[in-house]
């Protein structure tokens, strides 16, 4: 697979490659700050597919993962989802997409750098699974998609944060609305 095959395939993920270094940017359609949506064809679907394409492009020698605007990923939009959200089929799709999201990210076998441009409160495991994490002064890490919505963290954050910080501090990241400050990331080796 080559860049020309996937460069314009996604509405919420854009790519720029220079000297074999690929920048993968998560954004809202049109380039604005990203917001997560579980609606079909939304941001929940595309990153896993994009990671798969990137992993299978032999011309990529390094990947930079970043966002746009003042936040990496903080907002969620469920407006496009109706009664189907209460169906088994919907949750099976969410499960499959979540599984592909992590497996395909981990399938990228070149160095990955996360350039965290601001708070990441939804899928905060994505940038922290990269080999190097560089965070802005305004960055913070949290899981505001699950606990506030009365669901358990079950898409990777529930395993990853306790592994990074230990069971107690990792648990705090999963339920604390304030988030884990990026400035503390250097002390705990999250950020380089």
UniProtKB/TrEMBL annotation:
One Pfam family named in its UniProt record: ECH_1
Source organism (scientific name): Fusarium pseudoanthophilum
SUPFAM superfamilies for the chain: ClpP/crotonase
Protein name from the UniProt record: Enoyl hydratase
Coiled-coil regions, chain positions: none
